[in-house]
Specification:
By secondary structure, the protein is mainly alpha-helical. Helices cover 55% and strands 7% of the residues.
Length: 82
């Protein structure tokens, strides 16, 4: 387990507590090839697989078995309907 870092003791100057603020590091932005990514997006939209892929990813996250069970139940309902 990671131990907590102890804060430096507060220096008292003229009755005012002063703690030195830590400067935040600026994150460098990753350079992206905009034309390339735009082309890929267009291709995906053309295929109409955008939505499919979204649900595919969702399925992977939730676990295939939950979905399989849902579709199985749905199929059984359709059979009993007729």
């Amino acid at each position: 387990m990671k131990t907590r870092k102890k804060k430096k003791p507060i220096e008292k100057k003229n009755g005012i507590n002063k703690r030195k603020k830590k400067k935040k590091k600026k994150k460098k932005k990753k350079e992206r090839d905009i034309k390339k990514s735009a082309l890929e997006n267009r291709k995906r939209r053309k295929k109409g697989k955008g939505k499919k892929e979204k649900y595919k990813r969702k399925r992977e996250r939730k676990g295939e078995w939950k979905w399989a069970r849902k579709w199985k139940r749905k199929r059984e309902k359709e059979k009993t309907f007729f």
